[in-house]
Write a structure and sequence with these properties.
Helix content: 40-55%
Structural class: mainly alpha
Order of helices and strands: HEEHH
Number of strands: 2
């Protein structure tokens, strides 16, 4: 007991969310002007994970960034929000 089943389900849901974001972005960092040499990818929550729990597993709230570019967004998430949302909006039109 102890809630393990609930946490495991959440982990599976998170992994599915992350994989879906990566697939949509073709496993490439989406930051403009990224040199794309970083090999480690991370799924970034456009609206922060802590402030918007209802959007945690929303694919439209995620974007693929390399570790280096993800670090550039730390504590500056709101500065990148409009850019990332527009990028995703344009992907959905194609």
């Amino acid at each position: 007991k102890g809630g393990i089943g609930r946490w495991r389900k959440r982990d599976i849901d998170y992994k599915l969310w992350r994989d879906t974001v990566f697939q949509r972005d073709k496993y490439l960092c989406q930051m403009p002007n990224c040199d794309k040499v970083e090999r480690y990818l991370e799924a970034h929550h456009i609206k922060t994970y802590n402030k918007y729990p209802n959007l945690r597993l929303e694919v439209l709230n995620g974007i693929t960034l390399c570790k280096k570019c993800h670090g550039k967004t730390f504590k500056k998430e709101e500065q990148f929000e409009a850019l990332f949302n527009e990028m995703i909006r344009l992907k959905n039109l194609i």
